[in-house]
Design a protein that fits this description.
- The chain is 56% helix and 10% strand.
- By secondary structure, it is of the alpha/beta class.
- The chain has two domains: 306 residues, Luciferase-like domain (TIM Barrel, Alpha-Beta Barrel), CATH 3.20.20.30; 180 residues, Four Helix Bundle (Hemerythrin (Met), subunit A) (Up-down Bundle).
- A nine-stranded parallel beta sheet has the order 3-2-1-13-10-9-8-5-4. Strands 6-7 form a two-stranded antiparallel sheet.
- Strand 2, helix 2 and strand 3 form a beta-alpha-beta unit.
- It starts with 8 loop residues before the first strand and ends with a helix.
Length: 500
C-alpha cells in the first residue's frame, strides 16, 4: 500500500485505568496540551479495573479542545448499535465534531459472556458487526424517514434517524484475520491495527486482503484510512521497531507513512508516559511530518493548535539539550577486559550508576503509593488519614531530596575529579567530557524543579501531577545520560587506569 496523501495525525493510546482517576485524566489532558490529534481509548467493559470507555471519553470531551475522541475499539457485542449511534452523534455534537468510531468484534469472548453478552462464533461476530455498522450509519443519516432493518443479530423497526452528528463520523475496524479484514475493505472508512499484535511486516500482508476486498466491492482502496496503534521505547541504543532514539522513530514511522499508507500513529506510552508523549509530540511528530511532506513535494500544513500555549509547553528545551543525535562519540577500541585500578574504576562507575537506577525505581514506587493514598475517598473524610497522607508527602519529599543530593554529589565528583583525570590522560576525550558536563547542568535544573514541586506538594496535594511530570523528565534524562556515559567512558577508564 503506497502513500495516498492523507494528512498525518499523531495521538495517544491511554489505558482507562480506574485505579488512579486523577492521573488517567491528567495524561489525556497532557496529550491535548501537547497538540496531539487523537485520543484512543480501549473498550473492555468486562475489565473491572477500567473506566467505562464511553463515559470516560464523554468526560474528556469537556476537558480537552483538540483531540479526536476515538474508542479504540468499541466491543460491539456489549454495545447495542442503535444506542451506540445516538451516543456517538450526541458526543460529536457536544465536542464540535471531534468523534470518530473504532469498532471491533470483541477480543475476549469469555469476558463478554461474563457480562451477559452473546457467545458467538468468529463468523457470527463478523456478520453481527456488519449489521451493526448498517444500523449506525442509517441512524446518522437524516431525511430518510424511519429506519427499518431486520437482521439475524440486530434489528430496528421504525427508529427515527438523529440526532445528526456534527460531521460524518468515520468507522474504523480493528481487524487481523482474513474475514474481518475483508469486511474492513468492503464497508469501513478506516483500519486500526496495533503493533502489539501485528508488526509492520504483518500489517503489510493484511493490507493486501483489505485492498482486494475494497476493489471487489467497487471501492478505491485509497479511500480506507490506515491508523496504527504503536508502542516502543525511547533509548540511546537502536533496537527493533520503535526501540531507540527519536531519529529511529522518525525514520521508521516515515517509512510506514510513505510505503504502507499509514496516516495516523497512536502511541501507547511506556513507564514514563508523560515523558514519552512529550517526546512523541515534540520530537517525532514534527520530524515525520516534515519528512513525509518533503517526499510528497509539499509543505507541512501550518498548525496553530499550540499558539495559545505557554512557551515552556511549546518547546522541548530539555529534549533538545539531551538530543542523542548531537552527542559526540569516541572512536571504538577493541573490547579487551582490563585488570587493575582501571577496570576497578570502570566497575565502580557502573556500580554507582546502578544504585542511581535502582533508587530511581524506588522513587517511582513511592510516588505511586502517595498517589494511591491521595485518591482514596476514605482519606478525604478522615483527619487521621489526611495526617497520614501528609506524613507520606513529607517522607517522599525527604527521600527525593536525599536522592537529588546524591545525584548532584555524584556529578560534582565526576566534573571535578574523574573528568579532569580523563581529560589529562587523553585529550581526545574532551568533546565527550564537555557534553557530559553540559548534561549535568541540564539534569541539575530538573532536580531543582522536582525539589520545588515536592515542597509545594506538602501543602497542595494537586501538585502531585507536577511532581510526576518532573520525575518523568528526570527519569528520561538521567537514564539516557547514564547509558551515554557508560558507552563512552567505561573503555577509556579501564584502558587509562583511572580511579573512580
Amino acid at each position: 500500500m503506497p502513500d495516498h496523501g492523507h494528512p498525518l495525525q499523531f495521538g495517544a493510546f491511554v489505558v482507562p485505568d480506574a485505579g488512579n482517576p486523577a492521573r488517567t485524566v491528567s495524561l489525556a489532558r497532557t496529550a491535548d496540551t501537547l497538540g496531539l490529534d487523537v485520543l484512543g481509548v480501549q473498550d473492555h467493559p468486562y475489565q473491572a479495573g477500567f473506566f467505562d470507555t464511553w463515559t470516560f471519553l464523554s468526560t474528556l470531551a469537556a476537558q480537552t479542545e483538540r483531540l479526536i475522541l476515538f474508542p479504540d475499539v468499541i466491543s460491539v457485542p456489549l454495545r447495542q448499535p442503535a444506542v451506540l449511534a445516538r451516543s456517538a452523534a450526541t458526543l460529536d455534537l457536544l465536542s464540535a465534531g471531534r468523534v470518530e468510531m473504532g469498532l471491533g468484534v470483541g477480543a475476549f469472548p469469555k469476558g463478554i459472556a461474563a457480562m451477559g453478552g452473546p457467545e458467538r462464533t468468529p463468523g457470527e461476530s463478523i456478520e453481527a458487526l456488519d449489521e451493526a455498522i448498517t444500523i449506525m450509519r442509517a441512524l446518522w443519516t437524516p431525511g430518510g424517514g424511519p429506519v427499518r432493518l431486520s437482521g439475524r443479530y440486530y434489528s430496528v423497526d421504525g427508529a427515527e434517524p438523529g440526532p445528526p452528528p456534527a460531521h460524518p463520523i468515520g468507522i474504523w475496524i480493528g481487524s487481523y484475520k482474513p474475514r474481518l479484514l475483508a469486511l474492513t475493505g468492503r464497508v469501513a472508512d478506516g483500519w486500526i491495527p496495533s503493533s502489539m499484535y501485528a508488526s509492520p511486516e504483518e500489517i503489510r500482508e493484511m493490507a493486501k486482503i483489505i485492498d482486494a476486498a475494497a476493489r471487489d466491492a467497487g471501492r478505491d482502496p485509497a479511500e480506507i484510512r490506515r491508523w496504527y496503534n504503536v508502542a516502543g521505547s525511547f533509548t540511546s541504543r537502536e533496537g527493533g521497531f520503535l526501540q531507540g532514539p527519536s531519529k529511529l522513530w522518525v525514520s521508521q514511522l516515515t517509512e510506514l507513512a510513505l510505503t504502507q499508507g499509514i496516516s495516523a500513529f497512536i502511541l501507547a506510552p511506556g513507564q514514563a508516559p508523560e515523558s514519552d508523549l512529550r517526546r512523541f509530540a515534540e520530537e517525532v511528530a514534527p520530524a515525520v511530518r516534515e519528512a513525509v511532506a518533503a517526499a510528497r513535494g509539499t509543505t507541512v500544513p501550518a498548525r496553530d493548535d499550540q499558539s495559545d500555549l505557554a512557551p515552556a509547553e511549546r518547546t522541548t528545551g530539555h529534549a533538545i539539550d539531551l538530543d542523542e543525535s548531537t552527542r559526540p562519540r569516541l572512536p571504538r577500541h577493541p573490547a579487551v577486559r582490563q585488570t587493575g585500578p582501571g577496570q576497578s574504576g570502570a566497575d565502580a562507575l557502573v556500580y554507582f550508576h546502578n544504585n542511581l537506577r535502582s533508587e530511581l525505581e524506588q522513587i517511582a514506587g513511592v510516588i505511586e503509593q502517595v498517589a494511591a493514598g491521595h485518591t482514596n475517598p476514605a482519606a478525604a473524610r478522615s483527619l487521621i488519614n489526611r495526617m497520614s497522607m501528609r506524613q507520606n508527602y513529607w517522607s517522599l519529599g525527604a527521600f527525593c531530596a536525599s536522592y537529588c543530593r546524591v545525584v548532584t554529589l555524584h556529578h560534582t565528583i565526576e566534573d571535578q575529579r574523574m573528568f579532569v583525570d580523563l581529560r589529562d590522560a587523553d585529550a581526545e576525550l574532551g568533546p565527550v567530557l564537555d557534553r557530559l558536563g553540559e548534561e549535568h547542568e541540564v539534569i541539575a535544573a530538573v532536580l531543582t524543579r522536582l525539589d520545588e514541586a515536592l515542597v509545594k506538594m506538602i501543602t497542595d496535594p494537586d501538585e502531585l501531577s507536577v511532581v510526576r511530570s518532573e520525575f518523568d523528565r528526570l527519569a528520561e534524562m538521567l537514564l539516557s545520560h547514564l547509558d551515554y556515559e557508560e558507552e563512552e567512558l567505561l573503555g577509556p577508564i579501564a584502558r587509562l587506569g583511572i580511579v573512580v
